[in-house]
Amino acid sequence: MQLKEEFVGKKKVDAKIFRAHFLASIKQSQESKVDDLANKRVGVFVLVVILVGVLAAAIGVRAGVYKKDLIAVAHSTRCLVSNNEVVKEFVRPVFNCELCRNTSRIERIANISRQEFLEKYAYGTVPVVITGAANGWKALDSFSYLYFKNLYTKDVVVMDDIVQGCQFINWGYHFDSIEEVFNMTDAKTKLEPGPGDDSWYVGWADCHPKTSDELRRQIQRPYFLPEESKTSSSEWIFMGWRGPGAFLHIDNVRLPSWQAQISGRKKWIFVPVLECAGICKDKYEVIVEKGDIIILDSNKWFHSTFVLPGDISITIGTEYD
Ligand SMILES: *[C@@H]1O[C@H](CO)[C@@H](O)[C@H](O)[C@H]1NC(C)=O
Ligand SMILES: *[C@@H]1O[C@H](CO)[C@@H](O)[C@H](O)[C@H]1NC(C)=O
Ligand SMILES: *[C@@H]1O[C@H](CO)[C@@H](O)[C@H](O)[C@H]1NC(C)=O
């Protein structure tokens, strides 16, 4: 407490006013938005997992590839399903499986034109990787665990706001908040965990005006996005070491997203929704390298990620329309 007072010092009054505004705006956006995204994601995901499980069992569709994952997760998180999500899942638009009927793999494309991106991929719902699209971004040099630690912990008021107002996902790892992520011992942050060591992977929305201004100086708008498309108001950052990242899930966000791989390498696995079994492949995999940007409609595909050995994986991305 002492430290906090001292640290904030003269800026305290300003900060208080700012904070009041910030919290009010967060509250408002949370009330007007359907609900908290973290909840939403976990809720939808669990619900879909259960529905898919039940449907698959009932009608004997070939869900063999991912049944194991789905069941494992359903068991661990079942209690989080909310009624709201049940309703939403029933109104989810049916995926047009024609879109992936002839898709044998996820493309990795370099140097795509805006026009081609718009025609083939922007809203086409099949994921694509645009290689090297983040090359030249400052983030490639600046982003690291320590960069984010400094960004978030240098101002306790900002950290408090972020803990209270921005969404955080621990993907089953032991962190309860972003504050804990940046409070771990040095040994854990610096070294790549060896086999059997304690790995970790987390994600959070940077929804604070102060930190997102700084973050946006490190990144650029992906060059291939349609000129008129708008990106959403906060970026999502995902960070973690070798090992499982996001578990297999489907989102309930309105828009497609881009995600830039700033450090490390990540394998993505996509599994088509149940209605496409037999039309599309059972599973698609693609590796996203440092400097690549992946485009996906996370609302239309089950997806999971796996951080490959090497550097810490750090990504940043957002939704676009
Ligand atoms: C898929 O491929 C078949 C055979 O090559 C073709 O007849 C069909 O039009 C293709 N469908 C789509 C959606 O591209
Ligand atoms: C990218 O494509 C444009 C036009 O198609 C071309 O002029 C340019 O040389 C290409 N750049 C690279 C690095 O391939
Ligand atoms: C940070 O770590 C210290 C020492 O391990 C602990 O006492 C403190 O409660 C931790 N704070 C948070 C927010 O996790």
Structure description:
Keywords: Membrane, Transmembrane, Transmembrane helix. GO terms for molecular function: 2-oxoglutarate-dependent dioxygenase activity. This is Cupin-like domain-containing protein. InterPro entries: Cupin_8 (IPR041667), JMJD6_ArgDemeth/LysHydrox (IPR050910). It comes from Ridgeia piscesae (Tubeworm). By secondary structure, the chain is α+β, with helices and mostly antiparallel strands. The chain has a domain at 97-319: Jelly Rolls (Sandwich). The protein is 40% helix and 19% strand. It has 13 helices and 12 strands. It has helices at 2-8, 12-32, 37-59, 64-77, 83-91, 98-101, 114-122, 139-142, 145-153, 156-165, 178-181, 186-190, 209-216; strands at residues 107-110, 128-131, 168-169, 201-206, 235-240, 243-244, 257-263, 266-272, 284-288, 293-296, 301-307, 313-319. The strands form 2 sheets. It has an 8-stranded mixed beta sheet. A 4-stranded antiparallel beta sheet has the order 6-11-8-9, with no helix packed on it. Strand 1 (107-110), helix 7 and strand 2 form a beta-alpha-beta unit. Helix 3 crosses helix 5 (83-91). It is globular and about 50 Å long. The termini are far apart.
